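STRUCTURE:
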């Protein structure tokens, strides 16, 4: 299920922190993923991950992370979750993501995590420590309100209901945790019923933010994988996708504008943030609040 590889470097600088949860650095301890999401962009050929369903574990990750964090001239938020799920099935035994979080705490860096793994709950203790000095943002990806649908499109990931429960538990522990509602798939998860259902559930769960995308991305590699899955699980839908999207990279759902309006209206009514700027500000504000209460001002 996994193989070890050696890494030369782990932490890279990002180009636009304001565009993605304030992440100033990126870190990927794992490559490849066993969750099997039918739309996974990380399968794209441009990333050169051979046999994506086998997890490549950077065996020397913690040594390199420690060295790289120690040598940084300034601290910042380190994002993880781009090329694999940092809470994939290997993490339970290997605990490399947990080890990296301990290092981020030691060197006073913040963290931004994107995951579908409910194992993130295990690390509440360290996330809480990091929250005391730096921004922490956890993004739980949930794209289907209905568990039966999530089982079909994200077959090996925890069910949507379990992810919502993890979100609840993290927020109750004071960890800033919201939802990534992306991608939305034409004729599968783009209905008003699904979007309303996700927002309703998020509201019940006291979620502070939802960040959406009204469509998906397709490139060589992930396009073929999606189409193979559409043929198996949604017979006939591939033709509609091909006619609608051709070889486009950005593939918005046909009703993107009206769905976005619906989404914004409902989030506004529920007091849920959805703009990237306000989401980042929310994470920064929490640190300020904690520090203010610590000093008793
Ligand atoms: S969890 Fe993320 S990396 Fe893993 S298969 Fe799903 S989309 Fe891809």
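SEQUENCE:
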């Amino acid at each position: 299920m996994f193989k070890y590889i050696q890494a030369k470097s782990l932490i890279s600088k990002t180009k636009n922190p304001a565009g993605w949860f304030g992440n100033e650095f990126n870190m990927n301890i794992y490559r490849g993923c066993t969750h099997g999401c039918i739309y996974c962009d990380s399968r794209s050929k441009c990333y050169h991950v051979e046999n994506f369903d086998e997890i490549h574990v950077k065996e020397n990750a913690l040594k390199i992370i420690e060295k790289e964090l120690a040598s940084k001239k300034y601290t910042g938020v380190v994002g993880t979750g781009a090329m694999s799920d940092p809470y994939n099935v290997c993490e339970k035994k290997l605990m490399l993501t947990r080890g990296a979080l301990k290092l981020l705490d030691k060197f006073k860096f913040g963290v931004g995590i994107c995951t579908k793994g409910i194992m993130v709950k295990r690390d509440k203790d360290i996330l809480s420590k990091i929250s005391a000095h730096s921004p922490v943002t956890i993004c739980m990806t949930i794209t289907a309100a209905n568990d039966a649908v999530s089982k079909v499109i994200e077959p090996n990931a925890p069910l949507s209901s379990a992810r919502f429960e993890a979100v609840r538990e993290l927020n109750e522990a004071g960890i800033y945790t919201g939802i990534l509602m992306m991608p939305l798939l034409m004729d599968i998860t783009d209905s008003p019923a699904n979007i309303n259902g996700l927002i309703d559930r998020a509201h019940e769960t006291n979620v502070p933010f939802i960040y959406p995308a009204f469509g998906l991305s397709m490139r060589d590699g992930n396009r073929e994988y999606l189409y193979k899955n559409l043929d198996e699980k949604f017979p006939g839908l591939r033709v509609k996708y091909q006619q609608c999207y051709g070889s486009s990279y950005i593939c918005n759902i046909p009703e993107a504008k009206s769905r976005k309006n619906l989404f914004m209206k409902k989030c506004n009514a529920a007091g849920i943030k959805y703009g990237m700027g306000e989401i980042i500000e929310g994470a920064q504000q929490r640190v300020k609040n904690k520090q203010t209460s610590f000093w008793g001002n």
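REMARK: The mean pLDDT is 96.
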